[in-house]
Amino acid sequence: MQRRGSGRIRPFLRKGTLFVVSAPSGAGKTTLCRELLRRIPDIRLSVSYTTRAPREGEINDVHYTFVSEKRFRGMIGRGEFAEWAVVHGNLYGTSLRRLKKLIRDGYDIILDIDVHGARQLKSTWNNAVYIFVLPPSMQILRKRLTARKTESAERIKERLENAKAEIAGYRDYDYIIVNDKLDKAYDELEGIVMSSRIRTANINPEWIAGFVK
Ligand code: ADP
Ligand code: 5GP
């Protein structure tokens, strides 16, 4: 896929938008979000903290910030997370400080978080855009998790069991993307981001005022 020219969009915009993306593990959320980061300008992924062990190839502070449970619990106690949750037996959380910095810097932000985290955020960040990625079927979800080869059979079973409860929460989301053909699912995700950028509520009123001076 070709990279798109990076036009200046910021002068038109008042502030960035928060895109919250959730999916059952293996549905393809990471693949879709990485493609979005590669192809469109002015969007950043908020790097989460986790107590899970790094997978092969994962880099600290790039894919996650990997911390001990003690440190994570300390951060919870000091109110340092915008949201946090226990997912598949590990702790994951979004740093409030990192989120605020990205917003201050004027970026659109993707949060790749689970359904519990999304629910927590919804009570405070109701102007975020909530996107849920579904696999075409449970059978295909199992196949993708198996083919990815990052989890043991036991962990895959656990993730498939959790998937049902996660999918049941789909109504909390604004958009549902079925990730069957990757290109089509990607186009839908990009369409959501690009159209939300030009929502009237996101346009800088001072910039518009320049036209009618
Ligand atoms: P998640 O982040 O939701 O856990 P990943 O992005 O890691 O999922 O995708 C799970 C596996 O499925 C990966 O091996 C990925 O390459 C593959 N995958 C993702 N989207 C598709 C698709 N549309 N068709 C086939 N395979 C896919
Ligand atoms: P993985 O271990 O496969 O990278 O991620 C497992 C799950 O944790 C995914 O559903 C992912 O969205 C979720 N997750 C990752 N970071 C966060 C976070 O900061 N907060 C919450 N609530 N979930 C997260």
What is the name of the CATH architecture?
3-Layer(aba) Sandwich
* Small-molecule binders: adenosine-5'-diphosphate, guanosine-5'-monophosphate
- For the termini, the CA-CA separation is 42 Å
How many extended strands?
A: 9
Low-confidence stretches: 1-8
Average pLDDT value?
90
Main β-sheet, in a few words?
Answer: 5 strands, parallel
Helix and strand content put the structural class at alpha/beta
* Beta-strand percentage range: 15-25%
Topology as a string of helices (H) and strands (E): EHEEEHEEHEHEHHEHH
The percent of residues in helical segments reads 40-55%
Based on CA inertia axes, which overall geometry fits? globular
Q: CATH superfamily, please?
A: P-loop containing nucleotide triphosphate hydrolases
Question: How is this structure best described in words?
Answer:
The protein has helices at 29-39, 69-77, 96-104, 115-124, 138-148, 153-167, 182-197, 205-209, and strands at 18-22, 43-45, 49-50, 65-66, 81-87, 90-95, 108-112, 129-134, 175-178. It contains eight helices and nine strands. It has one domain: Rossmann fold, CATH 3.40.50.300. It starts with 17 loop residues before the first strand and ends with a helix. With 213 residues, it is α/β, with parallel strands linked by helices. The structure holds adenosine-5'-diphosphate (ADP) and guanosine-5'-monophosphate (5GP). Guanosine-5'-monophosphate binds at residues 25, 48, 52, 83, 85, 87-88, 92-94, 112-114, 116-117.
